[in-house]
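> tool_call: predict_assembly(chains=two)
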Amino acid sequence: QLQLQESGPGLVKPSETLSLTCTVSGGSISSRSYYWGWIRQPPGKGLEWIGNIYYSGSTYYNPSLKSRVTISVDTSKNQFSLKLTSVTAADTAVYYCASRGYSYASGFDPWGQGTLVTVSS
Amino acid sequence: QTVVTQEPSFSVSPGGTVTLTCGLSSGSVSTSYYPSWYQQTPGQAPRTLIYNTNTRSSGVPDRFSGSILGNKAALTITGAQADDESDYYCVLYMGSGIWVFGGGTKLTVL
């Protein structure tokens, strides 16, 4: 059964780059059956889709974040990563990694437990 | 950018039926938007309830159902229970690989 776990710094300074990693277990990140993605949730607010990546490297990003986001895959470590540049306090959020089946009909499932990232000096 | 709309809050009596909706600021939701629904309790990751409009995720009770009602996607809870008190989110596929979440509905069971 697929399981995802986020990791990375819990505190990032303004204007710096937020970097998170999602480790996949119970399946291969090179599988053609899944997209891998990031979703975030500011404290007390709703969910926001950040982007997805396919094993081939094809990426899809939220247009409002596209200029600052990079999602990549490391097949040797069975991980995928998120980089968000030039962060501000508005990027403070719980960041979730999640998988989605290859078909658009698939929901986002499973989800990681989430990791809180605070942007503060 | 198109906004996905949900009722900010809703309340239901125990044992009652409630329908939450997921719409668009412009246009109608159809099955081609592949709506899915998620339940989230405080401090927890979201849990998938429904995907592909009306397919229940594994282990989800059949009192949760999804549909298209008029021009919106809908999540109906029949026989609401106290532990259904949660935040509910929908997400829609906008094309070109883009997904957009609704703002969420806070459901109170009282």
